[in-house]
Amino acid sequence: MLIFELEKNSSKPLYEQLYIGMKNAIITKQIDVGTKLPSKRKLADFLNISQTTIEIAYGQLLAEGYITSKPRVGFFVEEIDTLPYVEKEQSKVTIETRITKKYQYDFHPGKIDTESFPFTLWRKYAKELFDNTSKEYLQVGEPQGEYELRFEIANYLYQSRGIICNPEQIVIGSGTEQLLPMILRLLEDSSKFALENPGYSAIPRIHLQNNAIPIPVDEDGLIVDELEKTDANIVYITPSHQFPTGAVLSAARRTQLLKWAAVKGTNRYIIEDDYDSEFRYIGKPIPALQGMDKNEKVIYMSTFTKSLMPSLRVAYFVLPSTLLTAYKQIFSDYSATVPRFDQHILANFMKDGHFAKHLNRMRKIYRKKHDKLTNTFETFYPEITITGDQAGMHVLISVPLEKTEQELKQQANELNIAVYPVSDYLLKPIKYERPTFLLGFGGIDLVDIEPAIHQLMACWGIRKK
Ligand SMILES: Cc1ncc(COP(=O)(O)O)c(C=O)c1O
């Protein structure tokens, strides 16, 4: 009889030790094919362990095909094909951990104010949902997103952005990046895309590679005359606060763009990304293009990334009714990408008026940060110029220095400050007269804004006037 060394004090159960020992003995042919194994009782006596332990180990070997059982006769070792076995070398690849460097002052445009999030309220809504009465939400929900949330979004869009739509036109997804490919699939394969240059870098990088046509932007937003010179039929645009320049599309350009889209027989569409329109500091809110459009040519999209939190991963688009049938045909078998519970927490939060209240609070907070930033930079005028400061959560500054943007960025990084060169957002190179940077102020504490700017200016050798 084969001797199996079983360690009674090991953390591995006895049945597992026995199973592994026998399996190895079979694989290495220490037990010949066809050999009858000792009966459970005999082996239990021999090893001084319980019959149940033997039974479980034999059961496992049986299940994996190492032995067979002949009723009332016993267990026999099976013929097994040996797999070519290559000793694995210890992997030499070191796994790179993605730890992004933390800066003392990070002007990343995607950062929000984390101090003012209403955790207590959010927890209350989450707590209310996670109980027996929400059993239904354990099942898969509607592909377009939960009706209750779409209803609240339609309401909000009407009140705040002048957008008239019904919940059937809204599709919820886990981010602008995830929703854009869906929109692209709805449009004809032969479509030609135009993008703002500079623009939101995620779009060309993720979806359109090099095929998109870059359209220049000036202080009035996208230059529609330039768009008209191309054969593009779809344009992606951020009219309320152009990303990254911060320009607001002028009223004249809005009309021109809508007219461009309405030309008959061209199958043109405007994808309007209204990502941060909630925050406006100068002048009246600018209505969305979608609300001005009479020809169903605008696909409106927005997100809760700026207004609530980027980690929520809730964004949405509003389809013109002309694209609804195509949407249903292509996407009705796809599941929504946002968990149902998260959608209902948000819907209830909105229904009870907390989203509107939160926005009001955040507007005040961001306005204070915005004013502190612009006032501090004012003391460096005319050396520094600021643009794009009418809305949103970032501005553009340009500096009168001979160095490249990358050199200046490096210098700032060495001082523990993160700044973002506009050249990182170019679809096609543009020669800026002066190095230009995006400065997001959402994630910097109000009290830190002034010292952060002073340190940055000192590091670049820019003095107050
Ligand atoms: C132009 C633009 N659109 C959309 C978004 C938001 O994207 P998401 O909804 O995927 O978070 C951002 C985020 O910063 C943005 O800059």
From TrEMBL:
Residues 12-80 form the HTH gntR-type domain. The keyword Nucleotidyltransferase does not apply. InterPro entries: Aminotransferase_I/II_large (IPR004839), HTH_trans_reg/aminotransferase (IPR051446), PyrdxlP-dep_Trfase (IPR015424), PyrdxlP-dep_Trfase_major (IPR015421), Tscrpt_reg_HTH_GntR (IPR000524), WH-like_DNA-bd_sf (IPR036388), WH_DNA-bd_sf (IPR036390). Pfam families: Aminotran_1_2, GntR. The keyword Endoplasmic reticulum does not apply. Keywords: Aminotransferase, DNA-binding, Pyridoxal phosphate, Transcription, Transcription regulation, Transferase. PROSITE patterns: HTH_GNTR. Its cofactor is pyridoxal 5'-phosphate. GO terms for molecular function: DNA binding; DNA-binding transcription factor activity; pyridoxal phosphate binding; transaminase activity. In the C-terminal section; belongs to the class-I pyridoxal-phosphate-dependent aminotransferase family. This is PLP-dependent aminotransferase family protein. It comes from Lysinibacillus halotolerans. The lineage of its organism: Bacteria, Bacillati, Bacillota, Bacilli, Bacillales.
